[in-house]
Every structure is written in C-alpha cells, then in structure tokens.
Specification:
about 15% helix, alpha+beta, 52 strands, about 850 residues, six-stranded antiparallel β-sheet, eight-stranded parallel β-sheet, Immunoglobulin-like, TIM Barrel, 16 helices
Length: about 850
C-alpha cells in the first residue's frame, strides 16, 4: 500500500467514527469536535503574508507574567513544556484507527504511566482522533458508546484518580449535518446552529469535514463556549486543535482558522484548559499562535504510516532540525514548539536505531518541546525507559530554554542554550552518515573562560576545559548532551534574541535594520607579459552573483541523498545530488537579496516545496514530459539584503535533484576584478562600500594578509601592495575581503521612545555592545533600578559591534540591567556581556 493510500485509509476509519449516528438523527455528526485526524499532506500553493482581521486580534483572555509573557488559556500550567502520552502513533501503528483507543486501552496506558513514568513528571493522557460518537441535542460532541461502554467519564475519572490530566481532540469548522439540523445552542436562547457558518460557505478544515464558522456572529462564540463548558464539566484538562490554518498544508489563506482558534482559546481560558495547535503551523503567524495557544506543531506528523512495522523513521526526525532552527525563538514559558510524539520507548516498534532514538530524545529535550510519548506504555523496553526517565535530561526539557544552532551549514551541528544559573546546555548532533569527532567551542556559545563539562546521558563529570570540548566518535545519526558550567570570572555574551533578554514596548527582530557579516572576493588575474601588455582594473555593478554547485559544503542535505557524477546530460559541473525519499530536503544559508534553485526537469520527478526563512514560498513542479538540464524552477529577488535560508523538500515523484544554487548579493567592492602584470608591477586599489572600520581583514585562502604591509586602508580605498601581488603565482588569485556584521547577523530594534530592554544576570560586571548609526540617538541605562548614565548611539555611518557601556565592580549576585530608548529614529540591541561572580 502506498503512503498516500495508507493516509486515506486512516482518514476513512476516523471519519466513519465521527459520523456515528446519535440524537438527533438529522444531525449525525459535528465537525466542531470531530474524531478525525488525517495524515501529513503536502502544502499546496505559496504562502501569502496577510495581517489578521480586526475581529481576530482583539484583547486575548490570557494570563501574563510579570515579564509580560503571554500564557495562553492554560495560564501557569504552561510555564513548562507538558509531559505525557498521546494515542495517535499507536492508533496508526495498530492499523485499527479509532478502535484502538478503547476504555480498556486508555486505562492500561494510564496505569502504565503511573507506574513507569509519572514519578519523572509525565502526567498527560491525551486521547487523539476518533474519541466521539456523535452529538447531543445541542450539537455538542458525545463520546463513543462503542469505545466507552461505561462512559468516557469513567475513563476520565480513572485517569484523574491516577493523579494525571486528560486531553481530547478537536478540529475547526461545523458540519453540514449540524447546520441542517438547526439545533438550539445550549445556554443561549435565540441561537441555533443553522446560522453559524460563514457565508458564502467556506471549507473549515484541511480534510473538508465541515464549514468555516462565522466568528462575527455572537452565537458562534456561545456555541464554542457550550462545547468547552461541557468538556470542562467532564474534567478535560487539554485540547488538541488539529488541521489549523494557515498551516496543515494550506498556507495561502484559502483556509484560515485563526478566528476560531481565538474563539476556542477564549472559551478554554475560563477553565485553564491547555490548547495545543496542529499541524505544521505557518511561522508567518507565530505571534498569533503564541497569543492564543500553549503550543503549536512546527512540522508534519512524525509517524511513518507503517502499520505494524514502525511508529516513525529517521527522515521524519532529521527533517525537524531545520524547522526547529527556524522556530526556536518562539518557544518559551506559556507556549512551546511541538515536535509531535517522541517515539523512542520500544526498539521493536520505534523504527529507529538506538543512536537515532537518543538523538530524538536529545532534540526534544534541548528544544523544550512537549515531552510526550507515542509508544504503547505497557511495552516500553529498558533502553526506552532509560531515555525517558533520565532526570538530568528531563531537567533540560523542563528548564524551558529552547536551544539554537551555532550553524546549520553542515550535518554536524552544535546546539546550545544559556540557563539562568549561567550554565549552558550543549548538544552535539551528527546528522551525517559517518562517525565523527565533534567539538563545541566555547567562543561559539558566547563564553570566554574555562568551563567544566558533564555528560548528561552518562551522568558523568568529564573535567574542566579551557576553550572547548571534543566528543570522540559521535556515531552517524548520534548525539551527545552536556552541561557546560563556566568558572568564576568568565565572560558570557548574550545575543539579542536570547530568551533571557526581555523587551518592553514595540520591538522587531531585524526588519532590514541588521547588517550581516559577509565576505567578497577581489579576483586578481596575475600574469607576466614581459612588458608587452598592462592589465587594467574592471568595474563592477552593484550586484554580483555566486554560483554554488550541488556539492558545495554549505548545502546541507537531510535524509538519504546521493551524488551522481559524469552523467553527460548538461548538468552544471556535470553532477547532481538526488534523493528518492519524500520528506528529504536540502537547505542553504546565505547573505544576499535573492536566490535561484536550479535543477533538472524530467518525467521521473515531481513537486518540491520551497521555504525561505522558514516560510513556504512555493510548491514547484519539476515534472516534464522530457528531460531538460539546468532549469531555474524557483527564483526570488526581492529579499532584504541580509541573512536568509532556502530549503527545498521533496513531496512527490520518483526523484528530486539539486544541480546548483545561484545567490545574488550587493557588491561591496568596486572594482571586484583586476589584473596584475609582474612585468609592469603596480599597486591595485578597490573601493569598499562599507565604513572602513567594518573591514575585518583580507585573506588569500588560509593566509591572512598583514595590514600595513600587504595592504593599506585610506578612507574607503584599499590598496593591495605590488610587492605582495608580485609574489603570487601566475593565474587567478582570490583575495577575500571580510566584513564584520552584527553578532549572529541580527539585532532587535525599536522606533518607540520609552521602549526598553531588561536583562537579569548573576555576576560582577556588565557591558552593552551594539550598533551605531546616523539614525540612532541616546539611551538611558539603569542597573538595579538606579540610572547609571546615558550613551549616544549616533555615528555618521552604520557600524557594528561597538561597546557603548560597561560597568565593572558589581557585588557578586543577581543584578538587572535596563536600557531605555530616549531619542533618535531607532535603537538597536545586539549583545549584552557579563562577568560571572
């Protein structure tokens, strides 16, 4: 059975359960809370950014912490990622759909959790699709009598009796049957279900079980309230809201459930019920999901849809890394990035090797993702229990500090997060196919000074290390997890987007106000004419293009890719990368304002999803009736000049190919090419387009040129000395001009006077390093509530990484730094540094 057919079969099973006939006979089912969860479809169409309507952005019914963090409907219950179990993976694995979640099975899972996992913090038992059997006389869902012959209430009471919480499942929309039945809305005289759909009728969910609800009609909110009040009366603590759009394969706003998400959130908030959104939510609306929910799925289902064979597969784990790299900033107290079920509890059913199981557990832990198991809890093996009950790993997850990658430009990645006690959580992920020694450099984490290292999986101290730690022979698809504790007097650098940095007022990340670090070559053709010719510099335009072959080390391939060479079919540099597995992906991070994806078109190929900076831009079709090489199937040229990432994901066809990428960048050198004749030697000059202080250096391969000897800088004119050029061999010499940028190529910025930055730390000194520019003014700085000075951030040109404030000699202990914008068009925040006590 093909994967798509397996998906259809699963949908069919759960849909039949959803429409089981109960009273009234004319309204056999409701799509407000149907028992239906479908598989992972491929998105269709391009993402279109659109502001929410006024009706969808009114004041939320949320709890707020002192720091201003929205808590969603669950309030303080969502200050940490939840831990528990979800039924859906086993529903797929059992190949029995909704029948698997019987009363006996759910009770068995609850009892197994109480015995095996509950002492470690697991407490949610979430019943997914197909729990209901129809509706009551008010159009509200009622539980399946077949699944729960003694009533679902008895099951819920058993779960609560075990000291656990219980979750149920819903999707947006209202069914035609409920509309046609025109039932009264409970507790709201004069309201009936017949006029709750938006007109003209619009599809309400991805699968088309129902119609979009008209949330401008007060009766619609009353209807949702009546459903939620009933769920609350049963003792429901959690609701998964599936098929939410934009997301769920529909990011083009042809389906839009945001107003219903808000309505459900407001109803759930009155009962402090956790709201989890699913699935593959559109990151363009991350702030909206954070406002109204407690968690959101960032990608497709983790299940492989291999009934009886496996719960998941490695490609479904590895594809999450670039997604988490996009989403990590959005997770935190009150709302969490959901990676789906953690299926690592039993090697005979997980579909993963032992190394892959530990890698998955590590990714969930460091991502502060909801830590919920998808296995049959009655059949956990010893290694699965070891992974799921390691208290030090669980502590990483519950600390709620999502990790970020140092870089995603290779398959060997270092991820880290900075904890409130000044320690770092550091994970090493080998996503490649061979074992490797992997190093975490303290400088990459923002740490200067020695640190001790503890292996959290092994529960073993490894010693103290001056500048970094190397883990030997990390296996393919393997991971290591460490706690790194700086020694007294170390300096910690905190980037502007770190979770510990609080923003008061209207702030935006980047928004074209950042300057990325970049390098650009001055290409010099070196000749020796014997005095017969003299080379002349060539001028350049303001834009240059960079072609990257498919084997460029900066292109990261996720999944089972191979390289084919010498095909003789017209490929760029006569080679391609290719894969046959749907879900496999490539990604490339670049600095520029445009990029092309160049590949082959062929009858054996199909659709590819293209994401730029985490947002779905297009689904391109690489199928053609005949083969054609070097085809530009996707191109974008209107990006703000800065740091971006393109990712392509295989969705269909037998093959997906990558031939080359073409990046467009603003040129910083004029000229960018020149010639040097040894027979008539002369200095070469070029003009740089940035402040001369931003030129970090010039390199020829691994050799760094000496300023003052090999080159000089006078204003914006850089002169390469003829003595250096004369020593170069005949041919082409590429001199890389390296320009510094904002730390990690990003800043936070505000235009509002009075907007502020707050940062609490434990240490003995603090500094602020940020950008200067002609559009900036003054800022006021306070430490521990006392104003300690004003700083000017004005400069004639935009420059990066300038220390504008420092205060040493603080008493060891906890302190709070506050920076307030006083004047100027904009204030940028880049780096805060502090010294540990």
């Amino acid at each position: 059975m093909t994967r798509s057919l397996r998906h259809q079969a699963m949908r069919g099973v759960v849909a039949l359960v959803a429409v089981a006939a109960l009273l009234p006979a004319s309204a056999a089912a409701t799509s407000a809370v149907p028992g239906a969860r479908g598989p992972q479809p491929g998105p269709q169409g391009a993402t279109t950014k659109k502001a929410p309507s006024a009706a969808s952005i009114s004041s939320p019914a949320t709890v707020t912490t002192a720091a201003g963090t929205p808590q969603g409907p669950a309030g303080d219950a969502a200050l940490k990622p939840y831990m528990g179990w979800s039924s859906y993976s086993m529903q797929v694995y059992s190949n029995d759909g909704g029948n698997w979640i019987s009363a006996a099975q759910i009770i068995a899972q609850s009892d197994a959790m109480r015995k095996k996992l509950q002492p470690y913090g697991y407490k949610y038992i979430n019943i997914d699709a197909a729990w209901n059997g129809g509706i009551d006389g008010y159009g509200r869902p009622v539980p399946s009598k077949k699944l729960y012959p003694n009533g679902l209430q008895a099951v819920i009471d058993h779960i609560h009796g075990n000291g656990q919480k219980v979750g149920l499942y819903a999707i947006p929309g209202i069914s035609k049957a409920v509309l046609d039945a025109n039932l009264p809305v409970y507790g709201k005289p004069g309201c009936t279900t017949g006029n709750l759909a938006k007109q003209p009728l619009q599809q309400g969910d991805y699968w088309g079980f129902g119609y979009r609800v008209d949330m401008t009609n007060p009766c619609a909110q009353a209807y949702i309230d009546s459903i939620v009040d009933q769920l609350a009366s049963w003792g429901v603590d959690f609701l998964k809201f599936d098929s939410v759009t934009p997301g769920s394969g529909k990011n083009d706003l042809s389906l839009d459930a945001r107003d219903e998400v808000k309505g459900w959130s407001q109803a759930l908030a009155r009962h402090k019920i956790w709201l989890e959104l699913s699935w593959a939510l559109d990151i363009n609306y991350a702030e909206y999901w954070k406002q109204w929910s407690n968690g959101w799925r960032v990608d497709w289902d983790v299940e492989c849809y291999c009934p009886g064979e496996a719960l998941t597969a490695w490609p479904n784990i590895s594809r999450l890394f670039p997604k988490v790299a996009d989403w990590w900033r959005h997770g935190g107290p009150g709302g969490w990035n959901d990676l789906d079920s953690l299926n690592v509890g039993n090697g005979t059913m997980d579909g993963l090797t032992k190394d892959e199981r530990r890698t998955a557990a590590t990714l969930w832990a460091v991502s502060a993702a909801p830590f919920y198991v998808g296995n049959d809890l009655t059949k956990l093996d010893s290694y699965g229990l070891e992974l799921l009950t390691n208290p030090e790993v669980i502590a990483v997850n519950q600390a709620g500090r999502p990790a970020q990658p140092v870089s995603t430009k290779s398959n060997r990645q270092v991820w880290y997060s900075l904890n409130a006690d000044n320690s770092y959580t550091v994970a090493l992920f080998n996503l490649g196919t061979t074992e490797a020694n992997m190093t975490a450099n303290w400088a990459d984490l923002g740490l200067t000074g020695a640190a001790t290292v503890r292996d959290l999986w092994a529960k073993k101290n490894l010693g103290q290390f001056a500048t970094g730690y190397t883990a030997a022979t990390v296996p393919p698809h393997g991971a290591r997890l460490f706690k790194v504790t700086p020694q007294k007097g170390s300096v910690i650098r905190v980037n502007d987007d770190d979770l510990r940095v609080g923003y008061d007022g209207a702030w935006q990340r980047n928004g074209n106000r950042e300057v990325p670090a970049v390098s650009e070559p001055l290409t010099v053709t070196v000749t020796d004419s014997g005095g017969s010719t003299t080379g002349q510099p060539a001028t350049t335009s303001g834009v240059r293009t960079v072609e990257l072959n498919n084997d460029d080390p900066g292109i990261v391939y996720t999944g089972s890719w191979s390289r084919s060479t010498g095909r003789g079919l017209g490929d760029y540099q006569d080679d391609v990368h290719y894969t046959e597995a749907n879900g496999d992906a490539f990604s490339y991070s670049f600095v520029g304002n445009g990029v092309d994806y160049v590949t082959e078109k062929d009858p054996s190929q199909g659709e590819v999803e293209i994401y730029v900076d985490g947002a779905l831009k297009a689904t391109v079709d690489t199928h053609a009736d005949s083969r054609s090489a070097q085809q530009v199937v996707f191109s974008i040229s209107d990006l703000p000049n800065g740091s971006h990432t393109i990712r392509g994901v295989k969705k269909s066809g037998q093959f997906m190919l990558v031939d080359k990428l073409v990046v467009r960048q603003e040129s910083l050198l004029n000229p960018g090419t020149a010639s040097f004749d040894k027979a008539t030697p002369a200095d070469l000059t070029t003009e740089i387009a940035r402040d001369p202080a931003e030129l970090a250096g010039i390199a020829n391969g691994s050799t760094v040129l000496a300023k003052g000897t090999d080159y000089t800088v006078d204003g914006k004119i850089v002169t390469i000395r003829k003595e250096y050029l004369a020593a170069q061999p005949a041919g082409t010499t590429k001199l890389e001009f390296r320009f510094r940028g904002d730390h990690r190529d990003d800043v936070h910025a505000t235009t509002a006077n009075g907007a502020a930055i707050d940062f609490t730390f434990r240490g003995t000194g603090v500094s602020w390093v940020t950008a200067l520019g002609p559009d900036q003014g003054e800022a006021e700085i306070s430490v521990d509530g006392k104003v300690v000075g004003r700083v000017s951030l004005f400069n004639e040109s935009r420059v990066t990484a300038r220390q504008v404030f420092t205060l040493p000699g603080l008493k060891a202990g906890q302190h709070t730094l506050r920076i307030v914008k006083l004047s100027g068009e904009v204030l940028r925040n880049d780096v805060i540094r502090y010294t540990t006590g």
